[in-house]
Write a structure and sequence with these properties.
Layout (H helix, E strand, L loop, with lengths): L6 H15 L4 H30 L13 H14 L19
């Protein structure tokens, strides 16, 4: 289940909520909690979309779970290993911009 909560824990939380909030206010609190959860999911999706846009090409298939540092590095290294090996080419000579002098 969600957050690794079983049926027994969920029933216990429901009974605790009924005691703390009261049966007359419980439906209103549940509706507000659902609205908050929906808003948080929407914000998460917006943040993920903006992150993908700001990172640029190569990150179109980025998932929030991929942002864990170990997962991120492993995924990027796997992508690099799949690409063609880089062949050594003659490097262009460094040139100094005259305007910088």
């Amino acid at each position: 289940m969600f957050f690794d909560i079983g049926a027994g824990e969920l029933a216990g939380l429901a009974i605790l909520a009924m005691i703390l909030v009261g049966p007359e206010r419980l439906p209103k609190v549940a509706v507000e909690a659902a609205k908050l959860l929906k808003k948080l999911r929407n914000l998460s999706q917006i943040a993920t979309t903006e992150l993908k846009e700001n990172l640029g090409p190569g990150f179109e298939n980025l998932q929030p779970a991929d942002l864990h540092p170990k997962t991120f590095v492993k995924k990027q290294l796997a992508d690099l290993m799949e690409e063609k090996p880089v062949t050594k080419t003659k490097r262009p000579e460094a040139r100094i911009d005259p305007e910088l002098i």
